[in-house]
Amino acid sequence: MALSTSSMDVLFEVALSERPLTFVAKIEAKKMPFIGSILTAMDGLFLDRNDLRQNVIIMREVGKRFAEGKVIVIFPEGTRQKNRRAPLLPFHPGTFKVAAKAGVPILPIAEYGTFRIFDIHHDYRQNLVQYTVMEPVLPEEYLQSSSPEVAAMIQNKVQVEVNRQRELDDQFMKSGEQHKKLPKPYWYEAFEPNAEK
Fold this sequence. Notes:
Blueprint: H1 8-16, E1 21-26, H2 35-41, E2 45-47, H3 52-67, E3 71-74, H4 93-102, E4 109-112, E5 130-133, H5 139-142, H6 147-175
């Protein structure tokens, strides 16, 4: 279970995962430049929030893939929280119902900072991105609870970690590090050690 604060989240999760994975995303994501193509190429599943019948079909497919041992990233808020300082949006209980049905562990991921990467209004030379892969919540820890209870429990865990990440982000922004040049070597030196600057 991961938060979605930017289109970059998909790329980070793919890069950080040690196993192949795919995503459940809102159907609007399919039309996003670049990201939509990645999600489609990874056999992503797209939810139309206005079509309950289609949602049921997608969730059945999620359950089927869980049973096959596949890793699926789901964004439990269902949409992005536009206010970066506000609490997380409520996690949808239905997201956790399909995990309970399949009896799979839930791996919460807290992240903060990706929303600045595509922001055309800043001139930062560096950007602090924080990702915390939390301890998995095993089936025996949540199967006796209702889906709303599981959603609230995991949201609380993630909220605590996001609050910690925000504090670190505040310290980074106050330090002025975001305006400093990146240290040498320059990125291209990894490919061309003798390249002129």
